């Protein structure tokens, strides 16, 4: 399903047929960008490029798909025949995954014959929107919990299979320690974490027996779930069991608390463990957490060493979508833009330059037309990744991208690192070049 | 990816190994339910059962997956060997898709050897959560726009591939006319709809030329996008072009407006069309719509015939997750429940009965233990669908389920059909049987 060429909006196909019928094959430039940051976001973290490039490289219509299109009665035989050889043959420049970016900055630029460049719109948005959304939400959690172990627990509330797996990848990229989702381990090498469910405890007649049996089954790095019946009573049972577990070779590393007042329980459990000789056993918390609740727990001094974050991460619940767009910037060398109310965009093929302060922190960005001289000391964020439909280089390792993302977060100005929306005067400066502003005015003066 | 047995949380595998090691193979009953309705929801619409049953019937570990698990070093050879033959061999009773349901009512009951019943938790929740979320959001849109053509436009903002396709299916099930997502047409027979993007208009030197060329390419049921530059000017161009389009055999059925004050534009365009002899040409609106905006447009008398609904539908943006759970209800014939604060659940294998008023509307539901005598005149909502790991009957056609969903919505009491949350006194009565309440108290008295 995920690789189907039919994973697109119908209008991409009807437009493709129209371009075909009209013989419109000149090159077009499209750019993908976000019109405005969601509420409570001071930055976004680019993610999903790897999947987007996979899609572009592999795109083709299968015989089954062509037969279905033919049967739909909407398409002409000559067009369907041409679709058989349809490939993405264009060029892509993009921001590297893990790069922090802002509103109005293209993160991906596609140049290809217009039919190809148009057709890939729906899936490119679908892929880049979601991974960027989750990497951004995860980055906020990372900023809220410096030095803590954060794990994605979100598969069950993710919107389907791909969302579950890509959320694991995007959150790891943004600094999470790993995910509970096993498939993300197999597919992307994301470290996987897991303990036990309440059902496992309940299926045993006594909680202590469940703890003992579980540790016997997998003695390496045991984490026990202690809130099924009475959290503090279970902590006391863990203390009592600890010598026997150790004697049998089990390595108890943590307990998990999943309900109630997490700060209060963590304090009491910490005290029980410290008094019981289990100072080295950590406390891991889960249960409807997000960056704000984590920050509040840590601000209150709750002795929690790690957090499992599910629903709020994997659905980006407070901002479950980006106001993103994939827009035609030029066709046959002529810059274009729509003027739809509230939705006008900057025309022409563009570059984003970033300048840094002496201490390495982000200073400001410049959005310019391609070919404008770069601002002094600025770094170009859009780099060539695909030429003639093929990757220019093997994909960077996920751990390398994760390092880049961490460096990006470190370089954020303090005002942007806060969880609350930056005040108007503190938002990050993104300058639109005078040449770009002049071009927009010129395009608008054209008759249509 | 979507069918992988590794699409699960790690703890499902570690628990499975523990059950294996302990020789725990007695039958367990798990139930899937929602703890509380999301804010602004007076009911939920069950969906996703078809995909859940597909998952259960097809579940198996491939050689690649077993090799990866082996390489992870977490699992013992005897367990991995046993996994090779692992299948879901259990029984499932469930509410039919399209059924309206409420908090605390199981919509799916699984009975199987505990390892199997436990293992399927993550993906069952992942599938049923999402489709139910979207069917419910779509049903609210349908209630807000009686008689209007509603189309899912959400693929680009859906959370990945599966979310896009399943959102199309779930919204069609709940009463939408169809979706823009082509793959939902191929996979599920969902009617597909589409027009053109602004880029298509912009790629032509003149808007009129784009209209003419598009109609020439696909003359059947043409919808033209008219807000690229100036909506009313484009409407006037459509009037001027109409005779020529008709002469060439093109059938102009509608125009689409995607920006600005949709009510004001629709009124002006309607007036231009009516004065220009295009009274039969409809107006279709899109652009960040949800059930509230649609209701407001219709309440204001906006002459809009159909709506394309994207982001808000496909992410269920105001409630992007359900507070759902899949909980052990009994093991080896003994009822179980956890007592975790704020998360206690009703123990035992249960049935949901629904009673109807004389006019056919929903009166109240009863949650009972299996084996309790049904309330007089009540209908049992959980019906057998899978026995011994195999479907009892072929899946109902999607259009039949769509009819059931429509009937369910018709039978909703007025207070629940409103978009706003029902007042406390108006929420739907779900009675927990005295025997079930007594059992919960008895289970809690057991030592653990």
From TrEMBL, chains A, B:
Residue ranges annotated for the Nicotinate phosphoribosyltransferase N-terminal domain, each copy included: 6-129
Record flagged with keyword Glycosyltransferase: yes
MF GO annotations: glycosyltransferase activity; nicotinate phosphoribosyltransferase activity
Broad class of enzyme this protein falls into: ligase
Pathway: Cofactor biosynthesis; NAD(+) biosynthesis; nicotinate D-ribonucleotide from nicotinate: step 1/1
Posttranslational modification: Transiently phosphorylated on a His residue during the reaction cycle. Phosphorylation strongly increases the affinity for substrates and increases the rate of nicotinate D-ribonucleotide production. Dephosphorylation regenerates the low-affinity form of the enzyme, leading to product release.
The Nicotinate/nicotinamide phosphoribosyltransferase domain, residue ranges: 150-330
GO cellular component, one term: cytosol
Reactions accelerated catalytically: 5-phospho-alpha-D-ribose 1-diphosphate + nicotinate + ATP + H2O = nicotinate beta-D-ribonucleotide + ADP + phosphate + diphosphate
Organism lineage: Bacteria, Pseudomonadati, Pseudomonadota, Betaproteobacteria, Rhodocyclales
Function: Catalyzes the first step in the biosynthesis of NAD from nicotinic acid, the ATP-dependent synthesis of beta-nicotinate D-ribonucleotide from nicotinate and 5-phospho-D-ribose 1-phosphate.
Protein name, per record: Nicotinate phosphoribosyltransferase
Similarity section: Belongs to the NAPRTase family.
InterPro entries for the chain: Aldolase_TIM, N/Namide_PRibTrfase, NAPRTase_N, Nic_PRibTrfase-Fam, Nic_PRibTrfase_pncB, Nicotinate_pribotase-like_C
Name of one Pfam family that matches: NAPRTase
Entry keywords, A to Z: Glycosyltransferase, Ligase, Phosphoprotein, Pyridine nucleotide biosynthesis, Transferase
GO annotation terms (biological process): NAD+ biosynthetic process via the salvage pathway
EC number: 6.3.4.21
């Amino acid at each position: 399903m995920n690789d189907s060429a039919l994973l697109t909006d119908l209008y991409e196909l009807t437009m493709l047929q129209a371009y075909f019928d009209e013989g419109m094959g000149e090159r077009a430039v499209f750019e993908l960008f976000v019109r405005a940051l969601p509420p409570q976001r001071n930055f976004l973290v680019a993610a999903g490029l790897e999947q987007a490039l996979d899609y572009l490289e592999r795109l083709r219509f299968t015989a089954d798909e062509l037969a279905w299109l033919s049967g739909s009665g909407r398409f002409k035989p000559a067009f369907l025949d041409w679709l058989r050889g349809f490939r993405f043959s264009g060029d892509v420049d993009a921001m590297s995954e893990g790069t922090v970016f802002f509103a109005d900055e293209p993160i991906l630029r596609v140049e290809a014959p217009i039919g190809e460049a148009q057709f890939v719109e729906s899936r490119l948005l679908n892929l880049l929107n979601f991974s960027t959304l989750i990497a951004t939400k995860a980055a906020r959690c990372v900023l809220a919990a410096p030095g803590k172990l954060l794990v994605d627990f979100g598969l069950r509330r993710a919107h389907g299979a791909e969302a579950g797996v890509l959320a694991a990848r995007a959150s790891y990229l943004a600094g999470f320690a790993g995910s509970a989702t096993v498939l993300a381990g197999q597919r992307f090498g994301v470290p996987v974490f897991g303990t036990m469910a309440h059902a496992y405890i309940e299926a045993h007649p006594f909680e202590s027996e469940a703890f003992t049996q579980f540790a016997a089954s997998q003695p390496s790095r045991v984490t026990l779930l202690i809130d099924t019946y009475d959290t503090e009573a279970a902590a006391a049972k863990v203390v009592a069991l600890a010598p026997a577990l150790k004697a049998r070779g089990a390595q108890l590393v943590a307990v998990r608390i999943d309900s109630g007042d997490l700060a209060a329980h963590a304090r009491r459990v910490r005290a029980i463990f410290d008094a019981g000789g289990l100072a080295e056993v950590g406390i891991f918390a889960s249960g409807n957490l997000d960056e704000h609740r984590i920050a509040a727990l840590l601000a209150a001094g709750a002795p929690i060493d790690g957090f499992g974050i599910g629903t709020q991460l994997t659905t980006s619940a407070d901002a479950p979508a980006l106001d993103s767009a994939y827009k035609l910037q030029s066709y046959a060398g002529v810059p274009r833009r729509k003027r739809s109310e509230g939705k006008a965009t900057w025309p022409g093929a563009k570059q984003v330059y970033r300048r840094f302060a002496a201490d390495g922190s982000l200073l400001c960005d410049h959005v310019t037309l391609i070919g404008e001289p770069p601002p002094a000391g600025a770094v170009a964020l859009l780099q060539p990744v695909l030429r003639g439909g093929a990757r220019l280089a093997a994909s960077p390792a996920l751990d390398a991208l994760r390092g880049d993302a961490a460096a990006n977060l470190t370089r954020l100005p303090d005002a942007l690192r806060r969880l609350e929306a930056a005040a108007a005067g503190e938002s990050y400066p993104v300058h639109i070049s005078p040449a770009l502003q002049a071009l927009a005015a010129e395009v608008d003066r054209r008759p249509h």
